[in-house]
Amino acid sequence: MPRFRDEWVIDRVLFDFVSGGSCSCCGLQHFLPNGTADLIGAISDLDTDQQKSEVAALAFHPWPPELRDQVWADRVRLRQKLKMDKKRYQEIWQDETQKQNFLEWCRTPETFRNFRRWFQLARTEVMETIQQKYNIHSAFGVVLCAVIEQVAGFPLTEYPPDGRGSVEIDYEGILTYDRRGGFTLPLVQEDGETLMEENLEIWLTELQNIGSPGKQLLQRGISSAKKDGGHEDDEDGDADGPTKDAAKTSFTSDRRIIRLIIARIWADLLQEKFREQQTP
After folding, report:
1. Is pLDDT of 15 > 60?
2. Which of 56, 153, 188, 192: disulfide with 4, CB 3.0–4.6 Å?
3. What is the pLDDT of residue 122?
4. 87, 136, 162, 37: CA torsion to nearest 10
5. Given CA atoms 53, 57, 59, 63 in this order, what sign does their dihedral have?
6. Does the pTM of the predicted model rise above 0.70?
7. Is a pLDDT exceeding 50 seen at residue 103?
């Protein structure tokens, strides 16, 4: 079996959790009549059949109930925080003059010569952002730590792309991981002097996408109920894409969230550098 697949994440999280990856102060503090099923139902991005698939998978899931409950509770909480934080990534695109200035600034040699240094991100920095900015610890922190490693080694899984829609899939395609530089975006040639225009266009499109109007974090796939004549933006679509007949735990949505957080970290850096340059 290829390495870093979802089964690897399940085993890795269980091992880390029983080895001390959780703490009592981060546990659930509220009553859930139906346990984990209530938390699965609380994620609005999942349509009815995907929820049923996840609930059915609980019957043979190796994680203990307290671990599953913590993971799903924090999945809900992280999505809420990401939605609340989305407005910060819309501001730079709302003013047409500022937008054009930003796009021109990205293509100046003084800017893109720094891209190789700016677009390097260690796995530990991603986890630190999740912990410090979004206050995610406990069991879901253990899950995301494993998922970050899974994203880094994603080509080894032999999975198809996780993204939904061309913008997300293109961004996923150019996001790479190098042991020395961490997560990277190849936006300039090795000489550091030649801009890779196609990759830059993919990144700028993704940058606009994460700041698009509305509260939706991830483009939704077509649910099984909408396959015939449905539209990929239907409200009851599924963020994890079309559902499968077999009930199976999937970390597709978690991987997409990790890539979104990586994009936001770089968006913060790029916007900060741009504003510094604009300040007299």
Report:
1. yes
2. 153
3. 95
4. -110
5. negative
6. yes
7. yes
Give the residue among 154, 126, 144 at the shortest CA–CA distance from 4: 154
At residue 177, the 3 state secondary structure works out as strand
Token look-up 């240094």 returns 117
Which DSSP helix (H) or strand (E) runs through 183? strand 182-184
**Average model confidence (pLDDT) for the chain?**
80
| Rounded alpha-carbon distances, angstroms, from residue 232 to 86, 98, 155, 242 | 21, 31, 26, 10
Kindly report each contact of residues 92-98 with a partner whose C-beta sits within 8 Å and lies 24 or more positions away, as own/partner.
92/211, 92/271, 92/274, 93/208, 93/211
Q: Which of 96, 92, 83 is nearest to 214 (CA)?
A: 83
Task: State yes or no: pLDDT of 86 exceeds 70.
Answer: yes
CA 188 vs CA 80, 168, 192: distances in Å: 35, 20, 6
Q: Are 71 and 143 in contact (CB under 8 A)?
A: yes
**Strand-by-strand arrangement of the 176-178 sheet:** 120-121, 182-184, 176-178
pLDDT score for 26: 40
Tokens encoding 111? 């800017």
Question: What confidence tier does 245 reach under pLDDT thresholds 50, 70, 90?
Answer: very low
Please, are residues 211 and 86 in contact by the beta-carbon 8 Å criterion? yes
- Contact status, residue 248 vs residue 53, Cβ threshold 8 Å: yes
φ and ψ at 77, to 5 degrees?
-65, -45
Chain segment 58-75, per-residue pLDDT in tens = 666 777 877 887 888 898
Evaluate if residue 120 carries a pLDDT over 50.
yes
Of 182, 159, 133, the residue nearest 256 (C-alpha): 159
Q: How far is it, in rounded angstroms, from Cα 163 to Cα 253?
A: 9
What would the two tokens of residue 58 be? 């609980």
